[in-house]
Amino acid sequence: MYNIIKKKRDGGELSTEEINYFVENYTKGKIPDYQISALFMAIYFNHMNKRETLDLTRAMVNSGDKVDLSSIKGIKVDKHSTGGVGDTTTLILGPMVAACGVPFAKMSGRGLGHTGGTLDKLESIKDFKVELSIEEFIRNVNNINISICSQTANIAPADKKFYALRDVTATVEDISLIASSIMSKKLAIGSDAIILDVKVGSGAFMKNLDDAINLGKEMVDIGIGYGRETIALITNMDEPLGNAIGNALEVKEAIDVLRGNGPKDLYELCIQLGIRLLLLSKRAKTEEEAKILLEETIRSKTAYNKFVELVKYQYGDIDYVKNPELLPKSDFVIEVKSEKDGYVKALNAEEIGKCALILGAGRETMESKIDFSVGIVLNKKVDDKVNVGDVLAYIHANDINKAKEVEAKIKEIYIIGEKNKENKKLIY
Ligand code: URA
Ligand code: CA
């Protein structure tokens, strides 16, 4: 291990064997944290090339279980977002592509966050079951082209240990380490094609465009190097996506989009991600053809019907989809009103996310219990015109003190002034 650290410290290139050695043995507990910390700091300063990064990813995939999806017919697709605020995309994109006949096989992990993840959101539908056996997951995808379930397998355990160590040694922010960490968890699950939604902006892991583009390219190179069709889109996370931030609120928002009534940005992002998935899966030959197919799934309600089917196959109560008023509701809703005239210039997504967390919509620790009913619904977004007294946002809460605290914060988060010179962009 000493020689591996020294080689990287002096700017050398690690061999496949050296990379396999430290990943395998650290996972087994045979190498102390301080040696891996030193190695990561050397990597941080001297970087890894494409070959080293791919080898590192492969070694991390091999550190745990792989989910074999080869018994699913057709070209199976998967989607991953690098994380944002109020991102309900999977609940819409999945049914849309499945309604086009493309198998959408998505396994999610649970994590910490401002709101719950996809699995938590789905659990706000009564009796919805996210813990499926691999056999049932595969059977559902073969039967109805879609399943969304939790990872029961032991996926990339090396990454769990590495990430925890990087977190406390100031070595998270290296492109090779980030890209291999994210991709190892994706590649362990055997889909044929992957769309990566790389978020950039105040509510994203990557705060500026150059970093996001670098991360996207690195992840695509890993995916393709590993033998999977991979595309990344760089998308805006300067403000939350859609209007709703919170679990049941986001499920309702997803149902709205599936019924053709949801927020435009969320719908547009799903169309753009969907276009790439239809191209990757060879369901469409051109972007135009893909777009028409996807739009038709909303117009004809086949995507909505697919969502109902997904809920039914995972034991959820479909009345909650047909009548979203049944979803968990907070005790009260308060309005946040504007004290200024002008235009919304900025609406920091991360700060809004923190407000949702205060209300109880997310997890601060893995033991936290999520309150499905609470959250925020934005009534004004960036570039919208506002007048004094207009409602900026609605706070759905069960605790009046927390609601008051969040109200004060939201008033500060909305930056209102002159109209921005350039209109915001959704896809970079
Ligand atoms: N997310 C991950 O899963 N890994 C990283 O290294 C950074 C963000
Ligand atoms: Ca949303």
UniProtKB/TrEMBL annotation:
Pyrimidine nucleoside phosphorylase C-terminal domain sequence ranges: 343-417
Enzyme class: transferase
MF annotations from Gene Ontology: 1,4-alpha-oligoglucan phosphorylase activity; thymidine phosphorylase activity
UniProt-listed GO biological process terms: pyrimidine nucleobase metabolic process; pyrimidine nucleoside metabolic process
EC id: 2.4.2.2
Pfam family, one: Glycos_transf_3
A single Gene Ontology CC term: cytosol
Keywords tagged on the record: Glycosyltransferase, Transferase
SUPFAM superfamilies the UniProt entry points to: Nucleoside phosphorylase/phosphoribosyltransferase catalytic domain, Nucleoside phosphorylase/phosphoribosyltransferase N-terminal domain, Pyrimidine nucleoside phosphorylase C-terminal domain
Entry-linked InterPro entries: Glycosyl_Trfase_fam3, Glycosyl_Trfase_fam3_N_dom, Glycosyl_Trfase_fam3_N_dom_sf, Nuc_phospho_transferase, PYNP-like_C_sf, PYNP_C, Pyrmidine_PPas_bac/euk, Pyrmidine_PPase_CS
Keyword tRNA processing: no
Catalytic activity line of the entry: uridine + phosphate = alpha-D-ribose 1-phosphate + uracil; 2'-deoxyuridine + phosphate = 2-deoxy-alpha-D-ribose 1-phosphate + uracil; thymidine + phosphate = 2-deoxy-alpha-D-ribose 1-phosphate + thymine
Keyword Metal-binding: no
SMART domains the UniProt entry points to: PYNP_C
Subunit structure comment from the entry: Homodimer.
Similarity remark: Belongs to the thymidine/pyrimidine-nucleoside phosphorylase family.
Functional summary from the UniProt entry: Catalyzes phosphorolysis of the pyrimidine nucleosides uridine, thymidine and 2'-deoxyuridine with the formation of the corresponding pyrimidine base and ribose-1-phosphate.
Protein name (database record): Pyrimidine-nucleoside phosphorylase
Organism name: Keratinibaculum paraultunense
